[in-house]
Amino acid sequence: MTTPLQKTDAKVFRLIQKEEKRQQETLSMIPSENWFSPSVREAVGSVFSHKYAEGNIGSRYYEGTDIVDELETLAIDRAKKAFNLLRSWGVNVQALSGSSANLAVYLALLQPGDTILAMYLPDGGHLSHGWSFEPDAKKREKEVKSGLLVYTGGSKKVNITSLLYNPVQYKTDPDTSQFNYKEIEKIALKYKPKLIITGGTAYPRIINHRKIKAIAKKIGAFYMADVAHEAGLIAGGAFPSPVGIADVVTMTTHKTLRSGRGAIILAKQDLIEKINRAILPGLQGGPHNHNIAGICVGLGEAAKPAFKKYAAQIIKNTSALADALKAQEFKLVTDGSDKHFVLIDLSQEPILGRPFARILAHAGITTNYSTMPWDARPPRNPSALRLGTPVLTTRGMKEKEMAQVAQWIREAMNIAEPWKELSFEKLEQEVIKSKDVKQIAKEVKDLCKKFPLH
Ligand SMILES: Cc1ncc(COP(=O)(O)O)c(C=O)c1O
């Protein structure tokens, strides 16, 4: 059957087909990605996309919004159930992305110039929590050594959070690469932030929300937990929740939560009203109702027993992957993981993060290179590789397949070792010619066929 798109725009139709084939025939191990159900995709592609609905439920700036109101009410109700919200808490589902959600919280709770204390970006924090650096090497050398595990940034402000606010960042412990709560407390007492943030993209361990809230309380700061990565694990009951402890919880909806693309903000009622006003008129125009429809369907799926199993299996698969990688003599940051991804420390391996990610991509395994705590290398060529299991688990893969993946990863490293002195471009030319890399890609494709994405 010919689809309307195929008839009217064969070029885009072909690109969609090609991308779907790529996703089907390779292993996506990027921990922030997932594969949505056909129902979520139907909702995202629906007529809700046509409607303007600036404002909140029952008080919009446009007519014809009764049905959007019903949809948003349903999404909020489902979010309240998924995250066991207390009665005194409210929900916003309108932020267009995780970064916008975080910005809306800052706009609601802070004044320009206020200090934010968040996790050091290279240790696994997130850009939307602020980042600046010192381009002048001489000035960098003169940085005041405070004796604390803290980073106060430099003159080059690279994003809106650092342009508007004053980010101070806590580093992980040099011995464990994990949070050092005593140290975070000392930093908080010294810099007196108005907001403390936890959460990030590459911290593989559980965060103790009670300890952070206690620190925030001591200095009268708000505590925001950004659980963009862990949202699905929390909704599935497989991971500790900050709800009821933190003052605000933000999350993306399209990672482990496997819903439409967007964000959810949970906060105490008085704060959510401020956050609603920060979203509109503060930051955004019309909400993306089609994505809210997708989020709503995804939250409906997350309420089913199958999702609980999914979340639990993600953790089991990651733990199996961690064990299998260690058995293949890879070193892991923090020696393992409590959640949906592992970070391999490649600093003692012949090939580092960026080239190794490219080698694996040619072998059919899509990953991303990453910084890691106390990495001596720059972010564009860091020492670590981040590998997640959410998509593999959506495919129905279990522990046995994780062991196979770890074996391919070691094989790829062995194949590439002779090219370790080559430039990135020359190394890639060798990879493209390599029969051994092609063989892994073929085996990956065969495995993917056994576990298709529906
Ligand atoms: C911890 C964290 N916060 C915020 C975001 C930003 O989400 P988005 O890409 O939707 O802006 C991400 C995305 O990776 C994230 O990992």
Automatic annotation (TrEMBL):
Gene3D superfamilies: Aspartate Aminotransferase, domain 1, Type I PLP-dependent aspartate aminotransferase-like (Major domain). GO terms for molecular function: glycine hydroxymethyltransferase activity; pyridoxal phosphate binding. Its cofactor is pyridoxal 5'-phosphate. The keyword DNA repair does not apply. GO terms for cellular component: cytoplasm. The record marks H254 as: Plays an important role in substrate specificity. Pathway: Amino-acid biosynthesis; glycine biosynthesis; glycine from L-serine: step 1/1; One-carbon metabolism; tetrahydrofolate interconversion. The keyword Transferase applies. It catalyses: (6R)-5,10-methylene-5,6,7,8-tetrahydrofolate + glycine + H2O = (6S)-5,6,7,8-tetrahydrofolate + L-serine. One of its GO terms (biological process) is glycine biosynthetic process from serine. The modification N6-(pyridoxal phosphate)lysine is found at K255. SUPFAM superfamilies: PLP-dependent transferases (SSF53383). Residues 5-409 form the Serine hydroxymethyltransferase-like domain. Keywords: Amino-acid biosynthesis, Cytoplasm, One-carbon metabolism, Pyridoxal phosphate, Transferase. Catalyzes the reversible interconversion of serine and glycine with tetrahydrofolate (THF) serving as the one-carbon carrier. This reaction serves as the major source of one-carbon groups required for the biosynthesis of purines, thymidylate, methionine, and other important biomolecules. Also exhibits THF-independent aldolase activity toward beta-hydroxyamino acids, producing glycine and aldehydes, via a retro-aldol mechanism. HAMAP family: SHMT. This is Serine hydroxymethyltransferase. It comes from Candidatus Andersenbacteria bacterium RIFCSPHIGHO2_12_FULL_45_11b.
